[in-house]
């Protein structure tokens, strides 16, 4: 029986050169200076080759030459270069006051000649209070107190991915297509991505201030940082009308502001002479952002959409990325309006804000228990304040596998919190008008259920047991009988073990996105993906 065979090969290469010089001196008895200058050069390249043959002549001979037709072949080559020159200087006064200044200029080959060179500096200052005033540390309670602040400008190029390196991203490229325009001749087709002229590097201006401390009792340490950043010229891909012959446009857009807090805390509440030690750590971050501007032509840009029911966009005055969905028509009191004859709801197809799709709140908790050679570690994480559109659920409803389709035993039911317009033109509560059908006619219909985005938008918050591990180090007395093994460690571990989600999330772990990890348009899931899996493992390691 005819079949096909394909071969693929590929490689990536990175070539790096660095030259660094350092200089340190004591300018006076109380003032020190350390500085560094450096240059760096990096070249990344990748190449892939594939060949495929259809219509095999001999069964079970999987060879490209064993074909009734000419093989199909393809090749991709990418190369990108980056050069940088940088310097830094640090002034210290009596080992408790420090001023640090940096500057760097990069040249990136994947940008146009007018924009490939960009400079970004930074400055920060720190003051160790307990070293400046030694009496504070003599009490034994406060061991270290440090104040710090800084201002920076950071440049980056956000083009391409780890495979194509961003090379040739400024132009629409051609690829060869089999059978186009004629099977007897070669043909090339243009890709579906437009690129705005003169793409610039992204620039982020940031300022921060914070403190770090260590307290003697219970080995308590911690810190907090307040920050604010403004990012200009973000490089994003936005959707365009397919009437243009393209599907997306890569361009620089406006300005986004982020501000928030980062904090951490570590404590060792138990440490006994017999080797038993318990340590606990926590970190918390909160981030609030807003789109300040986009382009002169638009105050919102669509990054991704799920049919006509949901979309992810950047919108001036709103957080980023913003999830919008369609909703049922509602009366002034917020009740769903139903048809007084059929009991069915409807929508006008307009979009409504749901919220941000990145978590504003992230809390991490971890603990370690040590006893001699045994170590138990656990990591728990909480994320909340963001939302997700589960288009995976629309497929379940269509097939009848979704739990929503069985809420009313697939009988006729009254739409919860609904109303209808009476003969006087007033909206009155609906207590007895049921939907005409509670079976497939309702749950599979796009105008009544599956095409209403609010039915599948929910909180993406969760508590997750990310990791638990147990490790044991063999005693040195056992290993002393060997002359070459210095250490043996045995461990078992599990990751992504348990998750707790809100009741509104009926189906899935929200920590993945159908648009890929490199897309700004996080917040969609679908049936074509595999959600994060639970992992178990064991490790045996030797030190020689």
Plain-language structure description:
- This protein has 544 residues and is mainly beta.
- 5% of the residues lie in helices and 54% in strands.
- The protein has helices spanning 129-132, 392-399, 440-443, 446-450, 476-479; strands at residues 4-26, 31-54, 72-93, 97-108, 117-128, 142-156, 174-176, 188-190, 193-195, 202-215, 220-239, 248-271, 276-293, 300-306, 310-315, 322-326, 336-337, 351-356, 361-371, 374-384, 387-390, 418-421, 427-429, 457-459, 462-473, 487-500, 524-525, 535-543.
- The protein has a 16-stranded mixed beta sheet that branches.
- The longest helix has 8 residues, at 392-399.
- It is globular, with a radius of gyration of 30 Å.
- 17% of the residues are buried.
Task: State the gist of this model.
The protein has about 550 residues and is mostly beta strands. It has helices at about 130, 390-400, 440-445, 445-450, 475-480; strands at about 5-25, 30-55, 70-95, 95-110, 115-130, 140-155, 175, 190, 195, 200-215, 220-240, 250-270, 275-295, 300-305, 310-315, 320-325, 335, 350-355, 360-370, 375-385, 385-390, 420, 425-430, 455-460, 460-475, 485-500, 525, 535-544.
